[in-house]
Amino acid sequence: MHICVLGQGYVGLPLAVRAAEVGHTVTGYEPDRTRSEALAAGSSYVEDIDDDRLQAVSSSGAYNASSDPQDLKGFDVAVITVPTPLTDRAPDLSCVRDAGRVLAEYLEPGATVVLESTTHPGTTRDVLIPLLEEGSGLVAGQDFHVGFSPERIDPGNADWRLENTPKIVAGLTEGCLRRVKAFYDTVTDVTVPASGLEEAELAKVFENTYRHVNIALVNELSRMAHTLGVDVWHTLELAATKPFGFTKFLPGPGVGGHCLPIDPVYLSHHVKARHGQTFRLIELAQDINESQPDYVVRRLQDALSRRFRRSVHGARVLALGAAYKPGTSDARQSPAVEVTDRLRAMGADVTVVDPYLPVADGGCREIPFGTATASATVADFDAVVLLTPHGEFDLVRLAAEAVYVLDTRGVMAAAPHIERL
User: Fold this and answer.
1) CB 39 within 8 A of CB 30
2) Which of 11, 283, 396, 412 has minimal Cβ neighbours within 10 Å of its Cβ?
3) Angle between helices 51-59 and 12-21 (to 10 degrees)
């Protein structure tokens, strides 16, 4: 089939490449010309797809990256994987609307359109379908097929990838569901049919809400445990020995990426705007997790004052990690960036190290641990704050050479000069 994937980011590019690998002819539509040209040249900016894999499907003719809408002509299946950000703390569906309008121009009878972008229940039915019908003059469920299949991409996760992660599929009608399922059966090992569009949409935002709320719970627990003088990390290890009724979540500097800081807000905002009801747990979790970077800064401030009788202002701080999670360059909504921004605003001299982010993207540079460089060694810093525990960081040498470490991820053994959040 001719497959068009609109949006070639962390979600769209892996789907496009996988579809090309299994035998489809794929157009990866990316309106950002700089990005589309990079993909056309065989250069991937998504860690989950290396250059060799991209070049293989490109050279075979199975994959074509384009910023020209004309290349969408004649599609059998179009999948929308565009961003759904927040603007002024409210859901912004402008990219979904733009994608719907573009597709409507090239929509032909019998074709299928699937939305993968995370959003609130009702978006496919109330936002996307009217745009497709108005622009094409066709009727959804009668002349063409429409579905929703929430993305479950976890950047940098080598164990759970697109092809082996169960894929929820939904359709406007039974006929739509069959078409949507038939496509995803070619690219994923397991498809899970949903009874309706809204159930599938709600399942996605609830998955992330579940994580968001539980992370907020352990973040607040870590603050209370610190006040009480209790080791929260050992407490969580003890609780995790229960073989039923408990799932282990860990504290950290906050939540990042597209999913957790944003997706639950789509649900709470929609419920409030449409029905006037407040989703209290989401709003409370948002408050706790958004304040976590400030808590990290306060802990570092207290440590500098208590241990060295100095303030954050003028202190030399080494921040390890800028991405929101290990093993990826994804710094969207990263709490690590918020921590470093706050420290700099307080007058700290902060050096950020992240092997996945070049200087141009995040102001990051590598400092080999224990090796003299033109800038500094670890021992030259007043404090180190470990924000994102990339596997490239030598934590043994860090423990041996740093003057003081604030470990926000609990990956280092506690010591007189190492504190865990």
Assistant:
1) yes
2) 396
3) 50
CB 50 within 8 A of CB 57: no
Rounded to an integer, what distance in angstroms lies between the CA atom of residue 220 and that of residue 214? Answer: 10
Q: What percent of the chain has pLDDT over 70?
A: 95
Reported as a pLDDT band with limits 50, 70 and 90, residue 52 is very high
Q: Which pLDDT belongs to residue 358?
A: 63
pLDDT average, residue stretch 307-331? 91
Residue 379 DSSP code: G
Q: How many Cα neighbours within 13 Å face the side chain of 167?
A: 26
- Position 261 scores a pLDDT of 75
Could you please report the per-residue DSSP string of 46-100?
STTS-HHHHHHHHHTTSEEEES-GGGGTT-SEEEE-----EETTEE--HHHHHHH
Of 323, 402, 412, residue with least CA distance to 361: 323
95 as an active site residue: the answer is no
Residue with tokens 């739509």: 176
Q: How confident is the model at residue 364 (pLDDT cuts 50, 70, 90)?
A: very low
b/e per residue 352-383 (b: at least 16 CB within 10 A): bbbbbbeeeebebeebebeeeeeeebbeebbb
**In this structure, what DSSP letter does residue 415 have?**
B
CB 354 within 8 A of CB 326: no
C-alpha count within 13 angstroms, C-beta hemisphere, residue 211: 16
Query: Catalytic pick from 4, 95, 176, 259?
Result: 259
Give me the residues paired with residue 191 across strands: 167
Query: Is 196 a residue whose pLDDT tops 50?
Result: yes
Alpha-carbon torsion angle 392, 396, 398, 401, nearest 10: -140
Asked if 386 and 399 touch (Cβ cutoff 8 Å), the reply is no
What is the Rg, in whole angstroms, of the alpha carbon atoms belonging to the chain? 23
Residue 132 vs residues 4, 83, 323, 334: alpha-carbon distances, Å: 15, 19, 37, 35
